[in-house]
Amino acid sequence: MNYRFAVVAFVVLLSTSLPAGAVAAGTGPGFETATMATGSSPSADVPARTTVDERPVAAVSAAGSDDILHRTTVLRHRPEHAGTFETEMTFHVPDPIVDLEIDLGSEASVESVDGFEATGDGTYRWTEETDEPLIRFRLPANRVGSDRGHQGERTVASAGRGETPTPTQERRQTHGDGYTFVDTGDWGIVQVPGISLSLRRTDPVGIDETVTVDGPGSTGGDIAVFGDVTEYERTVDGETFRLVVPEAADLRESPDDILDVLADASERLAVGERDEEVFVVAAPTDGIEWGPRGLQYGDADAWVVDDAPLEAAGNVWLHEYVHVRQGYRQPTVGVATETNWLVEAQAEYYAGLLALEAGLIDFDEFSRFLERGERAPYATGVLTDPESWDDDRTDYVKGRLVAGEIDRRLRLATDGDRTLEDVFRQLNAEDERLTESDVLGSIETAGGSDVRRVAERYTRTEAAPEMWTQADHGEAFAQSIADFEYGFGADPIEVDGKPWDRWAGAGPNDPDVTAVPAGETVTIPVSIDNTGGRAGTADAALQVDGEVVDYSQPRLAAGEGTTATLSWTPPEPGEYELRVGSERLTAFVRSSASVTVTDLTVDPERVAAGESVTATATVESADDRPGAAVLAFRTAAGTVANRSVALESGETETVAATLRFGDDGRYEVAVGERTASVTVGGESLTDTEIDVDDVPGFDAAAAFFAVVALIGVLAAVGRRNDT
To answer: What is the pLDDT of residue 202?
Structure first.
């Protein structure tokens, strides 16, 4: 009887020392609760499973971090097995991930695994025997037709033969048996494999991928080239173009001229969604029957046939570059069927307009290019209804004419203040599937209800506009426009409404740096100045890794300036580039694992009931990158205070919270894995009545370990009594 009472008393006392959120036996924090990809909600005591089918959510410069799942993909050419290539993927699995499954798809032929086990057709689960599991497999290299739609993580857009490209995404059409990707044995242009990831984790994690070619070749991360190549580079306004020319290619144009045209387009096309790097391959045409004349694949990779001319209205180099700038086309957003015409219509229209503005073609050629949309078989197709098209190139031919007419009407209605680029930029800021309502709403916002009615007529009916004259073009397109300058404001950035640390870059040309907790709203102050000679509407956009996440459009008089605040809520850890105008800020988004609590004190250690104590935690960054976290101050009652902290690499700081306890007793305060005790009143802890059921963090595991420990103590006492 006495032994039974002693066991119960010991368990009660142990449970009072477990702060809310802690787990018995030193196993660390509990599983994170999140919404599953299927939309169902897991229970609070089971880690969430998240399925990832898109591009990595964050690009990270430092692999091996505690909050990053890093994937290294190595591609190998196998000339002796033309038509296939080898892929080796190695994963660095951080501590928060407790379960990981990958799906390679049915085409993969797995050759070896280390740390994975097969669970189904193309699916493999991490065995947890190593933190760096590896899988090696072969895939077919050759693809024919348009290969439209999604391939794992990547998206496809293509330019067709001559001036009229094949459609993309929703509809699947082909140009005979022409290749979209191919391996000849001597050289190859292939897709970087996309896979699906399904994981459970106890804390937010980011996903990062590094892709390399083992041997001669090159890659931009989505397209890879096998064989000897020569690379040419050009950087403009933070965007680097990599032009890769295989030894087997015979370029019609000089590499410098191609880069000049792409750089000019980068500066002219103010639509947001600017990638840090654009990877373009000159595809050899000798002996190869390509399906399209060009193809944009993934985020910012493309290939263009080596004999594509620059002095052409249907400039394929420009067409594929416009696709790179269409952020709304990515699988994280997507385009509805009735809006899909816009994807290729924009690429075609801007390929012609940019060529005209660069002096590569004259207005007569530009006019002939667009006016084909007035004639059969394209003119009678209803753009929002692909089933009505007599020719599968209707979105290219009629679509470019309609896009141009909408652009012209916007310019006329606003005296040049608004253009189709403004609509383009607003659509790029969308984070949900792009609908017809979104497109028409953006057009109306920019140009008013009359321009919207024009857009409705030419997209919803068989009506087709007439190509405008050169005089009409000058009236609409030669108007002066307001000039604006944008930058980060002088006020501090804020996280969840609180001023936040921001550190100067390492060098004069390096961006400033900050670290923010995942899931917290970041508010960025922005300065906007009209430096031109006329009034106009500004477009201050906050871009994160090239994607527009927020924008402000104040109208300012000539010489007028103002400020605005733009916001972003980072979902996952990673390293991101924030950009406003030409100014940049590097944001390290971190999980709580990025900050280590090294000490915790409570002052005073004894108080009367209701009096306050100050709990002070000493924290430092956990690795060689800046750290950020929301630290929870916990007691047996749960989380009683939260404090946000940002730290430079190697920095130590203290954060404090004021706490009060209403009843006498001894209490433990915890932050991270550190605890400290405070005594309230004069009674001893053993006299304090505590209900086990009311103590957060107490569970069967704690009781079990307490009983085991007590049995050991009692056994030792028994041995001492026997001696």
So the answer is: 86
